[in-house]
Amino acid sequence: MTPNLAFVYALSICLAGSLVTLLVSRWKPVVGWLAFLCVFSSSSLVIYAALTVLLSGAAPALTLFSLAGLGTCRLAIDGLSAILLLLIAVIAVLSSIYSVRYMVHYTEYGLGRYYPYFLLFVAGMYGIVVVTDLMVYFCAFWQLMTLPSYALVRFESKKQENVRAANRYLLMMELSCGLVMAGAGLLGSGSQPGALGRYEFDSLAANMSSVLSADSFTAIAALLLFLVGFGIKAGMWPFGQLWLPAAHPAAPSPVSALLSGVMIKTGVYGLMRSFLWLIPADDLASYPAAAWGLVIGVLGTATLFFGTIQALKQEESKRLLAFHSIGQVGYILLGLGACLALLPAASTSDSARVLAAMALAGALFHTINHGLFKSLLFLNAGSVLFATGTQSLNRIGGLFKFMPVTGVMTLIASFSIAGVPLFNGFASKWTIYVSTVLGSRTAPYLAVLALFAILTSAITLASFIKFFGSAFLSRTSQLVKQRLEEKKRLEVDWTMLVPQLVLASGCLVFGLFPQTALRLLKAGLATSEHGLGATLADGLPVSGGLAVAGPGGHALIVPFVLALVLVSMLLLARTLSRSGGSQRRVAIPWLCGYALESEANRYTAHGLYGEVKRYLRWAGGTARR
Amino acid sequence: MTESALWAIVTGVANVILVLAAAPFCEGIIRKVTARVQSRQGPPIWQPYLDILKLLGKEDIESGESPGLQRLSAYLSLAAVLTLAWFVPMGAAAPLTKAGDAILVIYLLTLCGVSTLLAGLAAGSTYSLFGVSREMMAMLTLEPLLAVGVIVGAVETGSLRLDDVLNASVYSLAAWPLAGILMLVVLLFSLQAFVGRVPFDTAEAETEIMEGPLIEYSGPKLGLFKYAQMSKLFVYCALLVGLFAPWGSQWPYPLALLVLLAKIGVLVLLITLVGATHARYRIDQAIRYYAALFVLSLVALTLALVGF
C-alpha cells in the first residue's frame, strides 16, 4: 500500500465515521468507542503513511480528482508533513480514548454534536498538512478543519460566553484563511498556469525565483500576508490573544487538547512552508532571509513574553493553559526566526549552517514537545474539571491525595513545559537557546532574544508552580471535600488515565533521549521536498550516542548521564535522611495556635505572585475569577 | 568512554565530598563573624555540623497532605545542589563538562529552587505558601542575571562549553573587558540574593513568616534543607569564582583547591558582612533592586555583543 493510498483510506474512514457516529449518537455507551475505533484505524493508516515517507522518501503527489474551473485536488506527503501527521495522529487517538468517558458527564448535551464533528475536525487537520493547492482546496480543507472545530468550541452552547468565544474563533479563522489565499493569489497571479494549477505549491515555488528578483514588493507583500494569516492560526502576538484564550477553554477538554496541542501547529507548519520551503534553494541570494528572521524572531519573542506573562495572571486552569499555548508558540517562532536569520551565513560558515539547522530542528522539536505536554496538561485539567466541576484554581486544592496518578502526570507535564532538565521541554528549548546564543556571532540581537526566552522560561515555571501547587498541593479545599463526599472517589477512570500515561511517557522519553527526536526530524527534513528547509537536513548534527551537541561540540547535553547522577544523588540524600533513624509522625499544620484551618485562611492561587503581577500590569491579560 | 568516564566519576565524587564537608564550615564562619560584628560571642565554628547531625536524629513531623512529595522535595533539594557540584570546577576541571553545558547549569540552579517551592507547596501551610510566592518571585528576577553572565561568556568565547565559559576569558585582562567587569559587579551585587541571605531572605523571613516554605519541616527533612542551603552557598561561590576569577585553577591539584577555598572564603566573608549590617528588604523593594540589576546586565550583554 502506498502512503498516499493509506492516507486516502484514513480520510475516508474519518468521513464515513462521522456519518456513522451521527446515526448512532443516541446510543451513548457505544458511540464513543465507535468514534475511537474510527480514529484509531485512520490514525494507524496515517502513521503508517508518515513512517513510510520518513523511511523511504516522499511519495509522488496523488491526484484525487479534478473539477472544471477549480483545478485539481492533489495530496503530497513529504517529510515535513509526515512529522505533523505523526503528531496529529497520536494526539487524536489519545484524545478520542479520553473522550469516551469524559463526554458522558455532559448530561445536557447530545453526543451527536460531538463525535461527528470530532472526526471531521481530525480529517481536516490531516488534509491541511498534505494538500498542495493554496487556493480552492486549501480553503476546502481549512473549512473542514475550522467549521467542525467551531461547532466543538460552542459545544456547551447554553453558556453565552462559549458561543461568543466560538463566533470570534470562527471570524479569526476565516480572516486567516482569506489572508493566506490573498497571499497565494498575489504570488500566483502573474504566473503562467503550467501543467499544474496556478496556485499549486510547486508552481508558486517555481515562480518565486522571478518574483524575488524582479518584483520584490510582491514577494514581501505575499510573505507578509502569509505571516499574518498563518500567524493568526498559530496564536502569534498580537493576534493570538484575540481568539485563543477564549476559544480553547470553551471546548470540551479532549478538544482543547487537540486545539492547543495540534491545531495551532498547522499555523506553524504554514509559516515554515511559506518561509523556508516556498523559496527555491538556489534563490537564497535574492531572498531577504535575515530581515524576515529579525521580524519573525522579534515577533516570536514578543509572543512568548506576553503570552506567558498573561498566563501568569490567570486563575482558571484551562484559560491559563491557553495563554501558555501562545507563549510556547513564541518559542517555536523564535526558533524559526533564528533559522532564517542564520541562513544567509550558512552558505559560507559551517557553524552557522549547523546553528541554522539546529534552530529549525529546535522549532520542530518544540512543536512536537508542546503537542505532547500541552495535550497532557489539558487532559489533566479536564480530569480535574471532571472530578471537581470547576476550572477555578482558587476553589480547588489538595487533590494530590485523592488523584495521585493524575497528580504525577500533571507534575511531569508541568516540569516539561517549564523546561526542567530531564524533561522534553528542556531539550527543545535548549536547542533553541544554543542556536540563538551561539548564533549571535552572525546576528547579535539573537542573544538578547535568547535572554528573554530564558527569562520567560522562569515565568513559565512560576505559572506552573501555581497551576500544580494550587490544584494538587496546598490544602484540601471546601469544594474538594464536598465532591469527595458526593463521589467517594475522585481519581478518574483508566480510560482517562491511559492517554495521560502515554503522553507523560512521551515527555520523559524525549527528555531523556532527545537524540531520538532529532534523528526523526533529520529524516523529516531530508525527505521533505525542495526549498531551503530541505537543504538544512545535512547540517543537523545527530550523533549515534546519547549526547546532543552543537557545532564543534561548543554546546552539549547528555540528559541520560545527568539523570544517572541526579538519581544517585537522590539516593545519597535519602540514605542520609534515614541514617539517624528518626521516627515519622503526622500532625496538623501550625497556624499560630489560635485558629484552626478553614476555607477562609487557605492560601489560594489568587494570592501568589502579587508584587510581580502588579509590576507587570502593563503587559495585559486580565484574569477571570 | 572508560578512562574519561572514570576520571569524571572520581572528580565528581571528590566534589560532592568537598561540598558536604566544607559547606557547614562556611556556615560556621558566617555565624561566628556575624556574631562578632554584632558584638556577640557566637556559637563555635563547628556548630552547623552538630546541628545537622542532631536534626538527622530528631522526630520527623509530616503535616502536609502529600507526604510523598514532601519527602521527594527534601531529597531533591540536596540532590540538585550536589548534582550541580558535578558541573563546577573545584580544584580540578569540572567533572561533567562532557555531559552538559552552561545552559544546563543555569537550569540546574533553577532545579535547586524548585525543590524548595515543592516543599512549601506540599506542606500547604498558609505561611509556607507565602514563602513559596516570594521565593518564586525572587527566582523570576534572579535567574536572568545568571543567564546574562553565562551568555556574555558565551558571546565572548563563542562557546557554551563549561570549560570554555568557566575558566576562560570572560575576565581576560588582554583588553578592557567592560562587559565582563560589569557582569562581575552585577553578580556580586546579586550574590546575597542568590544564596538567600539577609537582606534578601524575604522568602524565609524568620521573624515574619517563620522560614516560609520550611515552616512545617522538622527532623531529617529540615536537616537536608539546611544542608542544601549551606551547600548551595558553597557551590554558588565556586561557580562565581570559576566564571570571573579562574586564575590559579590550572595549578596542580592541592594548590588549585587551596586557592579556590581562599577565594570562596573571601566571598563568604563578603556575604557575612553585608548580611550582618543590613536589614531585610520587603519583597517589592527586593524586586525593584533585582530589576535595576537586570537592566545593568542588559547593558553588559549589549556591550559584549558590540565587542567590548
Number of beta strands of chain B: 1
Taken as a percent bin, the fraction of beta residues of chain A is under 5%
Q: Level of helix content of chain B?
A: over 70%
Binned, the helix content of chain A reads 55-70%
Mean pLDDT of chain B: 84
- Taking Cα atoms only, what radius of gyration of chain A do you get, to the nearest Å? 24 Å
In short:
Chain A is mainly α. Helix content of chain A is 69%, strand content 3%. Chain A has 22 helices and five strands.
How would you characterize this protein structure?
The complex is a heterodimer of chains A (about 625) and B (about 300). With about 625 residues, chain A is mostly helical. Chain A has a domain at about 290-575 and about 600-620. Chain A is about 70% helix and about 5% strand. Chain A contains 22 helices and 5 strands. In chain A, the strands form 2 sheets. Chain A has a two-stranded antiparallel sheet with strand order 1-2. A two-stranded antiparallel ribbon of chain A has the order 3-4. In chain A, strand 1 (about 60-65) and strand 2 form a beta hairpin. In chain A, helix 1 runs antiparallel to helix 4 (about 115-130), helix 11 packs antiparallel against helix 12 (about 315-345) and helix 12 (about 315-345) packs antiparallel against helix 13 (about 350-390). The longest helix of chain A is centred in the middle third of the chain and has 39 residues, at about 350-390. Chain A is globular, with a radius of gyration of 24 Å. The mean pLDDT of chain A is about 90. Chain B has about 300 residues and is an all-alpha fold. Chain B has one domain (about 1-305). Chain B is built from 11 helices and 1 strand, in the order ααβααααααααα. Chain B has helices at about 1-35, 45-55, 65-85, 100-125, 125-155, 160-165, 180-195, 205-210, 220-245, 255-275, 285-305, and one strand at about 60. In chain B, helix 3 runs parallel beside helix 9 and helix 7 (about 180-195) packs antiparallel against helix 9 (about 220-245). The longest helix of chain B is centred in the N-terminal third of the chain and has 36 residues, at about 1-35. Chain B is globular and about 55 Å long. The termini of chain B are far apart. Chains A and B meet through helix 15, helix 16, strand 4, helix 21 and strand 5 of A and helix 2, strand 1, helix 3, helix 4 and helix 5 of B. Strand 5 of chain A pairs parallel with strand 1 of chain B.
